[in-house]
Amino acid sequence: MLQRPPAEPGMSEADIDTPALIIDLDAMEGNLDRMAAFCRNAGVRLRAHAKTHKSPVIAHWQIARGAIGQCVQKPAEAEVLAWGGVSDILVSNEVVSSRKLARLAALTRMSKISLCADSAIVVDQIEAVAESFATRLTVLVEIDVSGGRCGVEPGEPATALAVRIARSRHLVFGGLQSYQGRAQHLRTEEERRDAIGQAAARTADTVAAIRKQKLECAVVGGAGTGTFAHEAASGVYNELQAGSYVFMDADYARNRPAPDFEQSLFVLSTVMSAARPGIAVLDCGHKGIAVDSGLPLIHARQDIDYVGASDEHGSLVLRSDPGSLAIGETLRLIPGHCDPTVDRYDWYVGMRGKRVECVFPVAARGMMQ
Amino acid sequence: MLQRPPAEPGMSEADIDTPALIIDLDAMEGNLDRMAAFCRNAGVRLRAHAKTHKSPVIAHWQIARGAIGQCVQKPAEAEVLAWGGVSDILVSNEVVSSRKLARLAALTRMSKISLCADSAIVVDQIEAVAESFATRLTVLVEIDVSGGRCGVEPGEPATALAVRIARSRHLVFGGLQSYQGRAQHLRTEEERRDAIGQAAARTADTVAAIRKQKLECAVVGGAGTGTFAHEAASGVYNELQAGSYVFMDADYARNRPAPDFEQSLFVLSTVMSAARPGIAVLDCGHKGIAVDSGLPLIHARQDIDYVGASDEHGSLVLRSDPGSLAIGETLRLIPGHCDPTVDRYDWYVGMRGKRVECVFPVAARGMMQ
């Protein structure tokens, strides 16, 4: 079953059923505009990552501002976007089962579908599935520029894989996927710039090696909200895959990426117990807000700390006036990490100021397959 | 949208689409039987907690073995159980909005509904809603025996609240909710026994104080999988609310509660990349398995460590044979924490050995309101 929608258009914020995932639409639209302007000025394409928002609605808002398409991590997310009218989708990840590959092959009837590979075994598997569907899939070689997750080594191993893709009759060699994940959360701008500088150099060498094989990398993609300005400036990357900039979160805010984005995503939560002075309990714990990158902050109330999350309870400590939180009062929580917080909800509540302007589904919530 | 079911009855484990939430039915049934036998022998009632399993199917398996009903934390969970035929449901938590209370009042047409209160304000709110629905709600006083979450102080404040409930025309005073949450995860049996001993003493004093007001506590409820034997032995508690015993998890296993329960819940995950020897990457990160109580363990493969979770990737290190994990191979992960792991999935896949015996919904997935 789906959660019931926690609000209806026209309601005031105080009437929203909590916990609820709310968007400050003004702040979000500002973020969308700023990133679109940045990419236009930098002369790079934006293929925003839908693993953050999981919504064809927000995808179309990005595309209307110039994004060329969307990234996803999973075939099930690709399905939700394709069924929602997104026409160009990259699975920026390896897909290894023939059942999942068949679903991607089927989607090529609706949208352009690309995916990544980092092994010859999987390239051959993709070719077999594409052949059986009499279709063509675009495959990018993922190279490892981050140290030890997915991706083949840049240089010769990546080039060999590119050649193998290009020689597969039902595959199109799409280019390179080169995402420096660890750099996103480095705390200083200098650390992030250095990490991306190294990744860009290894990526450029690989592009050159592939060119020697008379193959072009139509896409050289990567980047996230923490680093995209460095990839854009590198002259190597031509597609940026940032996702979190739409919403931001407490962890990205600590890194202060530029241009500045505003916090636009919140979890609205209600004080359910205030049995003694100075402490209070919210109706949102870690089932309702992700804590993997730290506890949430309280929006616009610097006198309150969210000090502990259990499954369905959030414990608050009031540093100033100990009696200033009443049972039934609502607070906006800033998630420590936006992506997995969004993935706990079936509905977005879009706020224009304190008024509910729209309610729409987190359509790819839970689509991990 | 819901996730599509990752398997169908009759399939083998190797054919399940991953990540998937799987139950070892033999192990789970053994756990259900052991807890039922324990409660029968101890002369206490079992009101198992559905915040773990979120499923009317599993609730009925518990009730068929003698459980008198179910606990939930949220009105939306109560709805899913009532609509699934569970006839006696306690919301073991405060409910503070009149919108949520109206939903509980409406459910009294289908099931017996109880809930908790820890303030006079909320008692009066519940009375007003019950009156407007011309129904009666059973209200327990939650006392704080754990130090600083929900609950009024035991003794006089709890007694005053009990009297207020009993004098409300549309409420029934149901007894005491006395859950020592912090004791569940203390590491030694002695620490847990001492903590429950203290909680039981304060609870007993409160029962006696309420009796002086000529009120009886029909229910004295609490306990979890880490401590229930101590509540049962106390002579104070008459209802146990354990939930996690059904599935167990890595954190509860570290505490070794007695009687011993088996791990019955797993996340099945596939190796999606193995680009260099000694490391590999799974298709399940913290969007697919909760990490708030520690990283998952690998079932039946002590030579492999799950060393890092990002959103959709799990990083493995192989301590023995560095080439022994192939792309496409599946592993069973033991969650660090069962409750929030279950809450990420729409479907259970019930396994009898290596064969899929049944597929059924996590019907109250995401029901946090």
UniProtKB/TrEMBL annotation, chains A, B:
Record Gene3D superfamilies: Alanine racemase, D-serine dehydratase-like domain
Lyase recorded as keyword: yes
Keyword tRNA processing: no
Domain D-serine dehydratase-like: 264-352
InterPro entries: Ala_racemase_N, D-amino_acid_metab_enzyme, D-ser_dehydrat-like_dom, D-ser_dehydrat-like_sf, PLP-binding_barrel
One MF annotation (Gene Ontology) recorded for this entry: D-serine ammonia-lyase activity
GO biological process assignments: D-serine catabolic process
Keyword terms, alphabetized: Lyase
Domain of life: Bacteria
PANTHER family per record: D-SERINE DEHYDRATASE (PTHR28004:SF2), ZGC:162816-RELATED (PTHR28004)
Family stated for the protein in its record: Belongs to the DSD1 family.
Name this protein carries in UniProt: Alanine racemase
Organism: Mesorhizobium helmanticense
